[in-house]
UniProtKB/TrEMBL annotation:
Coiled coil: none annotated. The keyword Transmembrane helix applies. This is Low temperature requirement protein A. It comes from Streptomyces sp. R44. The chain crosses the membrane at residues 21-43, 49-69, 81-102, 114-132, 144-165, 171-193, 205-225, 231-252, 278-297, 317-340, 347-364, 370-386. Keywords: Membrane, Transmembrane, Transmembrane helix. It holds the Pfam family LtrA. It comes from the Bacteria. InterPro entries: Low_temperature_requirement_A (IPR010640).
Length: 401
């Protein structure tokens, strides 16, 4: 481990591990992800779900930016710890604005504008910290300049324009901002970015998956808050936990290990491109899928617990019905893409299962909510088992080849 010449930040080595400071940093994102679910639950509709995914994509970019930075500079030493605490405060403000980011409440600050200004502050702090972290790295500084021009300033302009509108017009401007933001990463290229410690990088992203899965369990608890326990509530809770466990097993027994091994075996720009594709881009569908599914599980628990307004034969309806299976579908398709990018083999079970789950929304509206959750949990368990069995007996080297 070496100090840079300004002794402002401490560089990492290839054996760097996740620090307590980074775990502390993740706490605000626990709340942020919870707020995204609240944004959808307040008025479930296809438009609101798209809006929530836009917000999640922007929050994901904030988290990823500092996951990359924390891989090259220690988060618990020097100036970066102060930057992390500052960013935590800003993201907390962002999280407070999330539930009303598309329906601004009169009488206070403009919550869409607060969201955008704080998002811009996070991106600016990230670029400034990266700039200071490597004063002698000309390639990195050239990449940072390109990133600012292609992936920071244009999206911020589009987000600010969107704040002048509401409803679908605002959403279209913000969708454009996300498209420009993510597309700008390909424009800037991989030269200059570094992944010093593959183990740290993989662990950071595993932790954010755990955070998302934890939020799905919290959502179930919120769904039955202040309601009496019943056998239906216990059954729905068990089914929801089984579903979360299946998604956990798929990631931590298959995806995570193979991806980390592949990342470790690469170097230079190839390592950077793989990290960008598999972790920065393809982990977003995993988190988004869990958040969507969490909405469905929350609504199932609410219905089976509220016997005064619902009976056990009541199905889910509309966008909420789709979110239950659609979220799992998004997760499985993201997982399939990760397997394909990591090993080159075709994950047939995951891909077919993902498409079927995406298309199963209308069927959910035809069966009792509790039955839908139980069937989904069992189906996901079978799909994960089929995929796991196919990979059993293969070494990590063979899986990554």
């Amino acid at each position: 481990m070496a100090w840079n010449r300004e002794r402002a930040m401490v560089a990492t080595g290839d054996d760097h591990k996740v620090t307590p400071a980074e775990l502390f940093f993740d706490l605000v994102f626990v709340y942020a992800i919870t707020q995204v679910t609240a944004l959808m639950a307040a008025a479930p509709s296809p438009v609101r779900m798209v809006g929530a995914m836009v917000v999640l994509a922007l929050l994901w970019w904030c988290w990823c930016a500092f996951a990359w930075l924390g891989n090259v500079v220690r988060a618990d030493s020097g100036a970066l710890f102060g930057v992390l605490v500052t960013v935590m405060a800003v993201v907390l403000i962002v999280s407070l604005a999330v539930p009303r980011v598309f329906t601004d409440t009169p009488g206070g600050l403009s919550e869409p504008l607060v969201f955008v200004l704080c998002y811009g502050a996070v991106r600016t702090l990230h670029l400034a910290s990266y700039w200071l972290s490597s004063p002698g790295d000309a390639a990195l500084r050239a990449t940072l300049r390109r990133t600012a021009m292609a992936s920071v300033l244009p999206p911020l302009v589009l987000l600010l324009i969107g704040c002048a509108y509401d409803g679908r017009v605002q959403l279209l401007w913000w969708l454009g901002a996300v498209a420009v933001d993510y597309g700008g990463i390909y424009v800037t290229g991989s030269s200059g970015w570094r992944v010093n410690s593959p183990g740290h990088f993989a662990e950071r992203h595993g932790l954010i998956v755990i955070i998302a899965l934890g939020e799905s369990i919290v959502a179930m608890g919120v769904g039955v808050a202040e309601r009496p326990l019943s056998s239906a509530v216990l059954g729905a809770s068990a089914a929801g936990l089984l579903l979360s466990a299946g998604l956990w097993r798929l990631y931590f027994r298959q995806l995570g290990e193979a991806a980390e091994h592949r990342l470790t075996g690469l170097d230079g720009d190839e390592r950077t491109r793989f990290a960008r594709d598999v972790y920065t881009f393809l982990h977003l569908p995993l988190v988004a899928g869990v958040v969507l599914c969490a909405l469905g599980m929350k609504k199932v628990l609410q219905q089976v617990a509220d016997s005064a307004h619902y009976d056990l034969a009541e199905p889910l309806h509309g966008a909420v019905a789709w979110s239950l299976t659609g979220g799992v579908g998004v997760y499985l398709l993201g997982a399939a893409a990760i397997v394909l990018r990591t090993s080159g083999r075709r994950p047939t079970a995951l891909a077919v299962g993902g498409v079927c789950c995406l298309a199963a929304g209308p069927l959910v509206s035809l069966v009792p909510a509790l039955v839908a959750l139980v069937v989904l949990a069992l189906t996901a368990t079978v799909l994960v088992s089929l995929h796991t069995r196919r990979g059993t007996g293969r070494s990590p080297e063979a899986q990554a080849a």
